[in-house]
Design brief:
mainly alpha
Length: 57
């Protein structure tokens, strides 16, 4: 999801995600990756349900 232009829609995005707009500023939603060398393999990860929040704050 490309979300670098959220500023004009910040209030609407906060409402959609259930973020308290009057207390929290949505600074950025930026997908990131960091690699070391070219030996790619799955990284150790915590269970998705512990880190993913969908449609709520």
């Amino acid at each position: 999801m490309w979300t670098t232009a959220q500023a004009p829609l910040e209030r609407e995005m906060a409402a959609l995600l259930g973020v308290p707009y009057d207390r929290v500023m949505l600074a950025a939603f930026i997908p990131l990756a960091y690699t070391l060398g070219t030996d790619f393999r799955p990284a150790p990860r915590v269970p998705l349900d512990q880190v993913l929040h969908r449609n709520h704050w």
